[in-house]
Design brief:
single chain, 171 residues, mainly alpha, Growth Hormone, Chain: A, 6 helices, elongated
């Protein structure tokens, strides 16, 4: 779906976050079991697409030589913090304060996801423009950005200015 929107992955993530929050409302406030199951189905379908899209966005934001490391870090933090620690903390919260407290925490997390995905959606346009400028670099400029210590200083400055969208300053 994000490819149909010209790579606007953050926009898709934002829309799915809204649908997921609505599905959570349906789950927590549904009067019968059928609506609870519908809420669970929709929230389950909407939660994994943003996870995959965020992984793609991170991999696109790092240099090619760091894609493996970024994928590893994303997996580590998703499963260690997102799965293990969150499950233990929600369980402890339910033991101490009841199920109502867990729903409050889940809605707060949904609100944070909404705010962060809204920020990503607005900054995505800037990132897409920056990528277009980076793709227009000459091979010498790309090499200078990949290895700045051994690069010609003028070429490096020109490449950095081009990526940031600034005019090259003349001496």
């Amino acid at each position: 779906v994000s490819d149909l929107l010209k790579g606007r992955r953050a926009l898709v993530t934002f829309c799915l976050t809204i649908v997921m929050i609505c599905a959570l409302c349906l789950y927590f406030f549904a009067p019968d079991k059928a609506l609870i199951l519908v809420g669970l189905f929709i929230s389950g379908a909407c939660i994994y697409a943003p996870l995959d899209l965020v992984g793609l966005m991170v991999n696109e934001a790092v240099p090619k030589y760091a894609v493996g490391v970024s994928t590893g870090f994303m997996g580590f933090f998703q499963y260690i913090f997102g799965d293990t620690i969150a499950t233990a903390l929600i369980g402890e919260l339910v033991d101490r304060f009841g199920w109502g407290a867990s729903s409050v925490v889940i809605f707060i997390a949904g609100g944070l996801c909404f705010i962060l995905s809204l920020y990503l959606t607005y900054s995505e346009r800037h990132i897409i423009n920056m990528e277009k400028r980076a793709n227009s670099l000459t091979p010498a400029e790309k090499a200078a950005l990949e290895d700045p210590l051994s690069a010609d200083e003028d070429v490096l400055r020109a490449a950095e200015a081009k990526v940031k969208g600034k005019k090259k300053s003349k001496k």
